[in-house]
Amino acid sequence: MPETKPVGTQEQFVTEPMSVGLPWRLLVFSIVLFGLSIFIYVGLNVGYKSYLDSKSESLDQELAGLSNSVSEEDQQQFIVFYSQLTNLKKILAEHAFSGNAFSFLEANTLPQVSYTEAEYNSTASQIALTGEASSLQMLAAQLAQFNKASGVQRTSLSSLSFSPRGTVSFSIDVVFVPGFFSKPQ
Taking CA atoms, which of 5, 12, 135, 164 is between 20 and 30 Å from 144? Predict the structure, then answer.
């Protein structure tokens, strides 16, 4: 029988020596990366910045040359023209399209109703209509037609009278929603 040697505690837990190469490699890689970053920063700060500065100066000189090529009088005329265009745009944006009233009346008037007078009030967005209807029922139907039409805020019957011919004379105020006259319908 072979003889066994007693194993000591020191021999039992002996392992390989630790390698120190990994931290040195990581340190060298970090130094190279840091050096490359500094090189790129200096290159951009010195080289590219001077390139951009020279381009900016040349564009400033070109712009100055262009402004000198246009006379002061032409510049003033352009400013006046631009101002007129801006004012015209503002005026047209606030322009009321009173023609919308005609298309509204054409689309929403019953055949048995006729108007003898119409008065347009742009500030109140309203039309005061005077006319005749064939009967009281037709006048009520006309008021209902106006009330259900899009763009109408409210209607009110101002006056009502019966004529000897059997027709009904009336005055109606039609108030439109804000903005009804701001664009063409």
Answer: 164
